Amino acid sequence: MVVHGWWVHGMRNMQHDSACKTPLDELKQQAAWKAVDYVKSDMVVGLGTGSTAAFAVDRIGQLLKEGKLKNIIGVPTSIRTFEQAKSLGIPLATLDEQPAIDVAIDGADEVDPNLDVVKGRGGALLREKMVEMASKTFVCIVDDTKMVEGLGGSKLAMPVEIVQFCHKYTLGRLAALPEVAGCEAKLRMDGDKPYVTDNSNYIVDLYFQVGHERLILSRHAVNMQRSAHAG
User: Fold this and answer.
1) What are the catalytic residues?
2) CB 106 within 8 Å of CB 128
3) What three-state secondary structure class fits 141?
4) Residue 192: CB partners within 8 Å, gap ≥ 6?
5) What is the tens place of the pLDDT at every residue in 91-112?
6) Buried residues in 155-194 as b, exposed as e (16+ CB within 10 A)
7) pLDDT at 182
8) What is the Cα–Cα distance from 126 to 124, expressed in whole angstroms?
9) Rounded to whole angstroms, how far apart are CA atoms 193 and 180?
10) Reduced to 3 states, what is the DSSP secondary structure of residue 92?
């Protein structure tokens, strides 16, 4: 995934900020508001999903209400973002209706020095990737907690969205790929049932104990299997 815009902000003076915001929330808001500077009136905007992207969606809604932005159409990447944007009065469309997006704004789960990213731990990876691939510019907003020396450095999951049909077979195929040898493949659960995405798919989380070059290689290999998308 190519990143066209990227910021990491230090923590600013918190003296006058709301007591409800944590220092991490404040960092996320700073990055999100800076990203929204790329949004101009008459644009089609991809609206990301997650705690950081939510600040950007709030900001776009605020600027529309104030009249500082006009004629914006948002393309949300999840049901959650759709509901948030709708509540803020942001006009919305789908990729079918707006296949060419001017700018997409979203967060990331990991970012390495080469600006390669891991996305989708929040479960919206397929729609996020589709919207961002349709965008002329992708602005990736992160705080310093997401920075790693190499992808997989956080030792958290690389998510893979798979179809429900024969999901155990697909999970086994993923786990058997030579490129992911040594990783642990787990079906994401929601209580005692598999987690279901907005697309009615499942997610397999891959946990790596290998270098970032291996993770990038494995991501390409996974995308060749019977999966909807790898983060």
Assistant:
1) 128
2) yes
3) strand
4) none
5) 999 999 999 999 999 999 888 8
6) eebbbbbbeeeebeebbebbeebebbeebebeebeeeeee
7) 77
8) 6
9) 25
10) strand
| Beta-bridge mates of residue 45 | 74, 103
Please give the single-letter amino acid code of residue 67: G
Closest CA to 183 of 204, 200, 163, 198: 204
Report the candidate in 111, 185, 171, 178 with the shortest Cα–Cα distance to residue 145. Answer: 111
3-class secondary structure, 82: helix
Q: 138-147, 158-167, 216-225 — which is least confidently predicted?
A: 216-225
In angstroms, the CA 103 to CA 140 distance is 11
103, 46 Cβ separation under 8 angstroms: yes
Going through the chain in order, the beta strands assigned E by DSSP cover: 5-7, 44-47, 73-76, 101-107, 110-111, 117-118, 135-141, 158-162, 184-187, 189-190, 193-194, 202-207, 229-230
Residues near 2 by beta carbon (within 8 Å), at least 6 away in sequence = 138
Q: What backbone phi and psi angles, to 5 degrees, belong to 61?
A: -60, -40
| Residue whose structure tokens are 């990227």 | 6
Tell the residue number behind the tokens 């642990």, with chain if given: 184
The tens digit of pLDDT for each residue in 192-222 reads 999 999 999 999 998 877 554 455 555 555 5
Handedness of CA 125, 130, 133, 138 (dihedral sign): negative
Taking every pair of Cα atoms in the chain, the longest distance, rounded to a whole number of angstroms, is 55
